[in-house]
Design brief:
The chain has 2 domains: 1-30; 35-104, no CATH class. A hairpin with a 4-residue loop joins strand 1 and strand 2 (46-52). The chain is α+β, with helices and mostly antiparallel strands. Helices cover 45% and strands 18% of the residues. The chain has a 3-stranded antiparallel sheet with strand order 1-2-3, with helices on one face. It comes from Flavobacterium johnsoniae.
């Protein structure tokens, strides 16, 4: 009689663990909101926008921190800068970009 109780007890635990495992799988696969970057063409080059939850939070049509009102030369430069800003936002840092960071990204100023 005790053997049957023991088997019954372990089969119940196994079922509960299996249900818990599947529940954790579903929760871990849930869609997480991420930042979305897009480039856009300007009259003199390229710019970028960053969206979060389908809302544009940053739209940058010129290169920041330089005295000129000049757009990025290439789409790649705009997207590299957008990537830097997104990384800062993910780390809860200010999204401002410094001239030194642009130089490190090899952005033509």
């Amino acid at each position: 009689m005790t053997i049957n109780k023991h088997k019954f007890f372990w089969s119940k635990i196994q079922k509960n663990l299996l249900i818990l495992f599947f529940a954790l799988q579903i929760v871990s696969c849930a869609k997480k909101e991420n930042f979305k970057t897009e480039s856009f063409k300007t009259s003199s080059g390229w710019g970028y926008s960053i969206s979060y939850k389908e809302k544009i939070i940053i739209k940058q049509s010129i290169i920041p921190v330089i005295n000129d009102t000049k757009s990025f030369s290439t789409e790649e430069e705009a997207l590299k800068t957008a990537g830097l800003v997104v990384e800062k936002l993910k780390q809860n840092l200010s999204p401002t970009v410094t001239k030194n960071e642009l130089i490190l990204l090899k952005i033509k100023l």
